[in-house]
Design a protein that fits this description.
Helix content is 55%, strand content 9%. With 585 residues, it is an alpha/beta fold. The strands form three sheets. Strands 6-8-9-10-7-11 form a six-stranded mixed sheet, covered by helices on one side.
């Protein structure tokens, strides 16, 4: 009995071993069939499609091959034709675009456009990679170049089934927002058309609604134009740009000038949904560029709710002067000026400034420090502000008032208002209170024009009213420079805590300036020049510049007689009694 059982066990063992061996051998025999069969089918389609014109007879000839490929690639038969052709032509060493296929099939271009959805579907599934050609006409699909996914070619050549293609996702919303930005860069460099930009943006949005921020944006039901612009501004904001130039942004979105112009006009006239729904707001003027836009407070709070930190790499504004970058200069003043400036500079030392502000606030007094520096041109008013800022380690927000007088009536008032709004916002980013400098402020602190109906006068008066209102409750440090203090409107008198007049330097001071600027001069020569010429510091600087030019050109230092000649030409109009303007003959 036991021998019979052992015999049976041996038989079963041999049978099982044989079956496993046969199965493995059959598998080995089958594996090469994947590679051979796929390549054979692609090869036949490639051969048969030459000048086939994509007519019905061609499809009848390759029906079996298309079915086999569609089963392998898990696509439609039309798509399997496109896959086969791109596969074959790629192995000739080229990317494939519509022009290549039209020429190979010898078909009507409109015939190949019937497959446009199939191209997009193959790209979406990850079977194709796609890039743009810069050498094709800018029409949808016309400049797309396709290559087969390398994972697919590797599987076929390794006798393996069709691989699972998973399009790479985004690890976080920042990476996704960057992708939107890169699409804009492609559009800006004309690799994408506006149509293609929006098509890809829609795809990114629909496939990434699992990110709360994207879902929130999508729930706003904005147009694709507004959605893309909103995302663009968000990206610019979180990467350190508080505001974004409208013209520059829309140039990178719209390839049609008329469409771009109309879109900007709707933004500027508050007809755009982004504006009306308070997603973004207009920065009425940035003094150094065109009109800009930025996220509204509501949108900023939304980003913060989703964990996005803003302005981590905030860039310095163009009109911010850092104290460390101010070149140190020795300035010379008359005694009265020097005493006032020393008091002001001591006050702005950090400890004194904070203590003073606290005391003023406790007594119910305005705690802002305001100073008017007035006097003749070239007496060092602006440079004095720079040196005070450097010595007290304070940044300067410098505003050249001439740039704030907009050519558009009514805009100048908004610009002035924006100056103070920007300053208050910038104060929050500074360790020490910065200085707001109105340079050459003559135009807007002069006497107001009464009983004038001109638009210019009304605008200037409105600007003055805004400044007076802002200075009434100002809490920072404000400097203004002007050459025309005698024309100062009386309403500004009490707004300035310090009013320092810069007069022409006295003879002794001028002698010090001459000697400091031209150390080769003797004390006697410096005093002689100071007595002979009633020059401001700026005019003396001109003489020094001429001295340097002479030295460079002639290669020899100037002597005292040369300097006298330079001085005479500096005061040419006065010495020769030359008059400017009309005179009676």
């Amino acid at each position: 009995m036991q021998s019979s059982i052992k015999l049976l066990e041996n038989i079963l063992r041999h049978v099982l071993s044989y079956s496993i061996h046969t199965f493995v051998q059959n598998m080995d025999d089958m594996e090469p069939n994947i590679k051979a069969s796929i390549l054979e089918k692609i090869g036949k389609i490639y051969e048969q499609s030459k000048e086939c014109k994509l007519d019905s007879a061609f499809f009848e000839k390759v029906d079996e091959e298309l079915k086999h490929l569609s089963d392998y690639f898990k696509v439609s038969r039309n798509q399997s034709l496109i896959v086969a052709m791109v596969f074959a032509l790629n192995y000739k060493g080229d990317k494939v675009d519509l022009k290549d296929l039209i020429e190979y099939f010898d078909c009507n271009p409109m015939k190949i456009l019937e497959y446009s959805d199939d191209f997009e579907a193959l790209y979406t599934k990850g079977i194709f990679n796609k890039q743009k050609s810069k050498h094709r006409v800018r029409l949808a699909l016309s400049n797309d170049q396709f290559t087969i996914n390398e994972k697919i070619t590797e599987s076929i050549l390794s006798n393996k089934p069709m691989p699972v293609i998973e399009k790479e996702g985004f690890k976080d919303v920042i990476e996704l927002l960057e992708k939107f930005h890169k699409l804009g860069e492609q559009r800006d460099s004309e690799e994408l058309s506006t149509f293609e930009l929006f098509a890809q943006a829609k795809e990114l949005i629909s496939s990434n609604l699992h990110f709360p921020l994207i879902k929130k944006i999508n729930d706003n039901q904005l147009s694709i134009e507004d959605t893309y612009l909103f995302i663009y501004i968000i990206w610019k904001t979180i990467t350190g740009n508080e505001s974004t130039d409208i013209g520059r942004a829309t140039e990178g979105i719209f390839d049609n000038t008329s469409e771009r112009f109309n879109y900007v006009q709707k933004i500027m006239s508050n007809e755009n949904k982004l504006i009306s729904d308070k997603h973004i707001e207009i920065v009425e003027a940035n003094f150094f560029s065109d009109t800009e836009m930025k996220l509204s407070e509501t949108s900023v709070k939304m980003l913060q709710e989703f964990g996005l930190k803003l302005f981590a790499n905030k860039k310095k504004r163009d009109n911010i002067i850092e104290p460390a970058k101010i070149t140190p200069k020795t300035l010379y003043f008359n005694e009265f000026e020097r005493n006032q400036l020393n008091l002001l500079k001591t006050l702005l030392q950090e400890y004194n400034f904070k203590e003073t502000q606290n005391r003023l606030q406790n007594k119910g007094l305005p705690k802002g420090i305001t100073a008017l520096l007035h006097g003749l041109p070239g007496t060092g008013k602006t440079e004095t502000v720079f040196q005070v800022a450097r010595d007290t380690n304070r940044e300067i927000m410098k505003i050249d008032i001439s740039q704030s007088k907009s050519m558009w009536f009514g805009e100048s008032e908004k610009i002035i208002k924006r100056i103070f709004t920007d300053y208050k916002a910038y104060v929050k980013d500074c360790e020490r209170m910065p200085i707001l400098l109105f340079n050459e402020a003559d135009a807007i602190i002069s006497k107001r024009k009464l009983n004038s109906n001109s638009n210019v006068s009304q605008t200037e008066n409105a600007m003055q009213n805004i400044i007076l209102e802002e200075l009434e409750n100002f809490e920072g440090i404000f400097f203004a420079t002007t050459n025309l203090a005698k024309n100062l409107d009386s309403a500004f008198d009490r707004r300035f805590l310090f009013k320092i007049e810069f007069r022409k330097p006295e003879v002794s001071v001028k002698a010090q300036i001459w000697n400091s600027k031209l150390p080769s001069l003797s004390a006697a020569d410096s005093e002689t020049l100071a007595n002979l010429f009633d020059f401001s510091g700026g005019q003396i600087d001109n003489i020094v510049r001429k001295n340097e030019i002479h030295d460079v050109i002639h290669g020899i230092p100037v002597n005292f007689n040369n300097i006298l000649d330079f001085c005479k030409t500096e005061s040419l109009l006065k010495s020769n009694n030359i008059k400017i303007g009309f005179s009676k003959s």
